[in-house]
Amino acid sequence: MVVLYFGQLIHYERVRLGDNCTVYQAGLVGLKLAAEFILTLRTTRRVNVYSDSRSALKSLADPTNTHPLVGEVKRFLKRAKPERGMFLPWVKAHVGYHGNELADGEAKAAADSPSVSLDLPVSSSRFKFKLKSFIIQAWQDHWDYTPNKGRFTSSNILNVSLETHFWGEMAELFTGHCRFQAHLFRFGIGYVDSCACGAVGDAKHYIVSCPLTGDLTARLRFNPFDLSTLVHDFNLPVLGEIVRSQNIFGVCP
Ligand SMILES: [Zn+2]
């Protein structure tokens, strides 16, 4: 927080917030520091407090907001406004306003400080974000190091994600659940697990090494030693043809 008097820097305060604090909380703390400073003044009646935190200013203007920090800042402002004629305009950030640039510099200097001077309770949004990151990382570790299950899928889908990337036959293909011989045989359907060429008829075989699907796989653009390179939009139509071709070579009754 910086204080200018006719364009001259006359005071500044650096507060190093905890690592889990959000930009929103930082904006509110800045306004609280400004209000506290204004209440110490005895020589002026008119003060403008410029903030580039639109979310903080909107929260202060919202009578239904119940955020504890917003309530605290409101209490200071309630005193500072009538006593010191305080105004609270919003100012656009990073467009070269002198005071805003100075405040940014102080904020960066405070962030570089090794010791935390103010730690606030973790916001619910930050908590959810951290929890989600933690769960996804645990899922990724499980995905990377599970020895037996889903290894074909993990070889072509390297990273776990909450987004659904594939449906239908593509989801079946990338998870090895197509109606290929090896998969059907596993469930007692069909007499053998092998392709007509003699090798085990699983998804990887039909994509990488089967001579009977050679004319189709020749149209794929991928590195056979890195199946994650297979997962591209331009390969999907050909992969669909490989999935549907299984009936041609199948030995199902
Ligand atoms: Zn084959």
From TrEMBL:
- Coiled-coil ranges from the UniProt annotation: none
**Which InterPro entries does the entry mention?**
RNaseH-like_sf (IPR012337), RNaseH_domain (IPR002156), RNaseH_sf (IPR036397)
- Which residue range or ranges hold the RNase H type-1 domain? 1-112
Question: Listed GO molecular functions?
Answer: nucleic acid binding; RNA-DNA hybrid ribonuclease activity
This one is known as RNase H type-1 domain-containing protein
Per the UniProt record, the source organism is Araneus ventricosus (Orbweaver spider)
